[in-house]
Amino acid sequence: MPGGKKSSINTDEQVFQCPFCKADTRAGATTCFRCGQRLDSSEPAKNEVKQDKHENAHHVLQDGPREDPVSPSSSTKFLLGFLGSILLFIGVFMPIVSVPILGNLNYFQNGKGDGAIIIILAAGSLAVTLARKYRRLLYTGIASLLILGCGFIKFHLAISEARTSIETELAGNPFSGLGQLAIDRVQLEWGWALLVVGAILLIGAAVTREQ
């Protein structure tokens, strides 16, 4: 460089800029080779700190703030989906109707009732919950409620038809009163509550908003 000192700095060495003339200076040098000013030995560390801050700010602007992958709302959705699936599965085998002489009947009825479909929906809901696909629980929950609603309507229609049949076919029969008494003692059991609550929990897991 004409009129000045030539730089003998190796490009592989750590360098920093002189705060006075902005010339590249070897790390650890006490004076600038160009302007001759005395340098502070802590200057490279300051430059490195500034560079790290700049890189961190760049990453924050580019990637955005870091988020916790497991939020409280996500845990709530998982809990609702898991409990709903379990309640649906257990409720199928619990008593839903109490009939005189026959005793308690469940929704499964040895595979002859709609309970088999509920079991499939419960298993599907559990798989969806474990896969964290909570939106799909809305379909299994609504399907379960529709099936339970149809079963509830069928039950009341059957009771109504049985009363009508006794009144017409056993009219004047002294045993008609026993038939009416038996029909009146047919009632729903707590298994219905488990099934309905399970389906509602699945829908709740699907519609709960994530924070």
Task: Please outline what is shown here.
This protein has helices at residues 43-63, 72-92, 115-130, 137-169, 176-184, 191-207; strands at residues 15-17, 24-26, 95-99, 103-106, 187-188. With 211 residues, the chain is mainly α.
Helix content bin: 55-70%
Summed up, the domain count is: 2
Unreliable residue stretches: 1-9, 42-50, 57-68
Q: Report the structural category.
A: mainly alpha
Number of strands: 5
Distance between the amino and carboxyl termini: 62 Å
What does the main sheet amount to?
3 strands, antiparallel
Q: Based on Cα principal axes, name the global outline.
A: rod-shaped
For the biggest β-sheet, the strand order reads 4-3-5
Mean pLDDT: 77
Q: If you compute it from the alpha carbons, what radius of gyration comes out, rounded to the nearest whole angstrom?
A: 39 Å
Query: What portion of residues belong to β-strands?
Result: 5-15%
**Individual helix count:** 6
Order of helices and strands: EEHHEEHHHEH
